[in-house]
Amino acid sequence: METNEIIATIMAEFPYALYGSILVGALCAFLGVYIVAKRVVFLGAVLTQVSVLGLAMTFLPFMLVSHTAGSLIVTIIAVMILSRLLTGKKIPREALLGFIFVFSIAARILIMQKTPKVEVSEIENLLRGDILFVTPELFYMMLGVFIAAMTLHGLLFKEFSYISFDAETARTQGFNTGRWETLFYVIAAVVISVATHMVGDIFVFGFLVIPPIAAMLLVKQVKAIFLVAFLIGTLAPMVGLFFAFKFDFPASPAIIAVASIVFILAGVLNTLRRK
Amino acid sequence: MLPLIEFQHATLGYGRKIVLQDVNFAINSGDYFGMVGPNGAGKTTLLRAILGTLKPLSGKVVVQAAATTTLRFGYVPQRDTIDDILPYTVQEVVMMGRYRQIGIFRRPQKSDRDFVLESLQHVDIADLRHRVFKDLSGGQKQRVLIARALAAKPAALILDEPTNGMDFSSKISILDLIHQLHEEDRLTVIMVSHFLDDVANYVKRLAVVERNFFQVGEVDEVLNEKNLSSLYQMPILVTQVNGSKVILAGEHRGN
């Protein structure tokens, strides 16, 4: 297919896939800067798996909630529990996250085994990240989450940055750091669960990590890092979707590949700049 | 004069674990107060109780409110507790000290920026304001953290191991700066250190902290050979060289 033809096909046939992946890419990249700065990248991976577990649970016969609601409820509960457990010292944080990670995957597999075949394939589609079938309802829900999350982060930027930089001193100034941390993770949980339902776990986790680290290599100012990560999160899905159509690749891996190439180029540029 | 901070039969600890029992002492306005003791003795526990981030298990820690506003502490944490992955500039770090006053949902105003600049000038690093915090030397970082504490316009400056991991000249320069803030601005200073020499030659009053030993008094009264030898379980010599106290550990023979 020619370039113009590919663009026209995407715009005409898969507009929600394009706009939806841009929303998720940009938002996850923005949140990812904090996730990387707080050194809780593994938490991002854990929450995507918890979210998929929540989604898989809605396929059980007795569950009467929608896929998105199920994913949202389970992820928020997990975050509320984690925000308390992660501060404890008896079990190392990584070990606890590792437990939840494997538990979520194992539980999901068990649920899938006891689910009618047709629905198993439906779950697998979700896990693989078939973003081409984003529904208008899901897209508008993601748009709502995007606006709410970006507004909250815009209004509370200084509080979130202070607490991720130096929580101990913030606490001495009267900031209830526990509540701020919980608020941050609840926002992240909502974003991750809706986004995972929409574009799949690989896409979401990839964009929580790759654009932020590429931005950290490219620019040396905090606000510029957020901006560049946001831009990579916006542009990589467009380019990735184009290549997916051009070379008949699956969409999510193609988008992640584009973001990864940006990261590698940023690394090379950073190395050359230092020489 | 009312004490600024008063421990009244305070027992401090975490859950069922008691770290310090029946602590009684006061820190007055204008004090230059030091806390020394071996690692794990309870210095940080005491500091957290002063800062209000640890409630006593029993007894009271009374922090005196000023006439117009509640007492604000300017806290300078240990540098290694700060996670500086993101490249915040010196100016941005010092502005964090104003965040409580600025309030939620509000952006820093010109008056806040002026205050930040004034705090940076006060510690002689105004020229570093556009530099990235994580790229600075240990001494420079410590000055930035002191400037951030000053930006909160505190009633007392509280420093946790301010000279930890510093070379000799940076260490002296930071201790001189703290001394100057106390002398010229009449700022109450509370400093925790495990370097006895630092504390001995700068602070006026001192708490020696150990699990079964807690003593508060003037430096000369508390920092004597008997106390220190018992505290560190080894012979310790306290002597004077050119008017400065020198503390030597171990057996010493000759001059």
How would you describe what is shown here?
Chain A has 275 residues and is mainly α. Chain A has a single domain, classed as ABC transporter involved in vitamin B12 uptake, BtuC (Orthogonal Bundle). Helices cover 84% and strands 0% of the residues of chain A. Chain A has twelve helices and no strands. In chain A, helix 2 packs across helix 10, helix 4 runs antiparallel to helix 9 and helix 9 crosses helix 10. The longest helix of chain A is centred in the last third of the chain and has 26 residues. Chain B is α/β, with parallel strands linked by helices. Chain B folds into two domains: 130 residues, 3-Layer(aba) Sandwich (Rossmann fold), CATH 3.40.50.300; 80 residues, no CATH class. Helix content of chain B is 32%, strand content 29%. Chain B has nine helices and eleven strands. In chain B, the strands form three sheets. Chain B has a six-stranded mixed sheet, with helices on both faces. A three-stranded antiparallel sheet of chain B has the order 2-1-4, covered by helices on one side. In chain B, helix 2 runs parallel beside helix 5, helix 4 crosses helix 5 and helix 5 packs parallel to helix 6. The longest helix of chain B is centred in the C-terminal third of the chain and has 18 residues. Chains A and B meet through helix 2 and helix 8 of A and helix 2 and helix 3 of B.
